[in-house]
Amino acid sequence: MSRAAHHAAVDVAEQLDYYLVFANIRARERALPPEGIVVEEFVLRPDGTTSALDSAGWTAGGTWWSAAAFSRGLRDDARLQARVTPVARAGAQAAYRQLGGGELLPEPELRRHFLDRLDLPAAAPLNLVPAQATAERRIYRVLLAGELPEAGLAALRSGWRMQPFDRADDAANRIAGRTRRTLDGQTVTWTLRRIGSGLAWAVDLATDRPDDTSAHTLAPLLCRLRAEARSQGLIPITVDRLR
């Protein structure tokens, strides 16, 4: 395989999200074999926000099935979240083989099992505009479900090089970290925060450009932030533009 073809294959694989589904939380905690796997892919707009979610599930000893209802429940049912572990393709492949499925299909073939598309609302649940939002800034939110363990929180803070910040504007103590970058001549800031009762998280990304000319820069960044948060156990719900 050529270098270009290799990178193309990696890019395709990284567009799909994989989950192991266990019989119950005890089976997950004891690292028993899962019951099956679920594969998902967000449908993205040019600016990196999500418009829909495609998915398919496979259960040991069975066939592939439409997972639209499962994916919807996964994002608002804490008990279902407790039975699921986000994994990379390698983890899904190992489970699929262990459960008797053989070799996991290549990504283009997996997409053939996406039968029922789950449309996502234009406004995300718990969609509160952050205090730093102004008319001069674009604000995007990556909304995530689930609990973030201390090790996962530390990994995100370290990987995103989040610096200490003034908590004067955070009376509820929900901000877990904030960082700033300069990308393509613009200042981009993102904040990791707890949402609601703490069973949801958000990454709020702000840019100092008031128009859409930076979409080509922000879309890959939003995708990367979503993927890196998922790698620490969180479940992406949607990516929305708040302003």
Question: How would you sum up this structure, described in words?
Answer:
- By secondary structure, the protein is α+β, with helices and mostly antiparallel strands.
- It has helices at 3-15, 25-29, 68-74, 78-81, 89-98, 107-110, 150-159, 215-230, and strands at 17-21, 36-44, 50-59, 64-66, 84-87, 118-119, 138-145, 175-183, 186-195, 200-207, 235-241.
- Strands 1, 2, 3, 4, 5 and 6 form a six-stranded antiparallel sheet that branches. It has a five-stranded antiparallel sheet with strand order 8-9-10-7-11, covered by helices on one side.
- The protein is globular.
- The N and C termini lie far apart (43 Å).
- Mean pLDDT is 85; it is low at 1-13 and 124-128.
List descriptors.
single chain, 243 residues, alpha+beta, six-stranded antiparallel sheet, 11 strands, 31% strand, disordered N terminus
The rounded Rg comes to 18 Å
Helix content: 25-40%
Q: How many distinct beta strands?
A: 11
Mean pLDDT: 85
What is the approximate shape?
Answer: globular
Task: Give a quick account of the main beta sheet: strands, pairing sense, barrel closure.
Answer: 6 strands, antiparallel
Order of helices and strands: HEHEEEHHEHHEEHEEEHE
Number of helices: 8
- Spans where pLDDT lies below 50 across 5 or more residues: 1-13, 124-128
Terminal-residue CA separation: 43 Å
Structural class: alpha+beta
The share of residues in extended strands comes to 25-35%
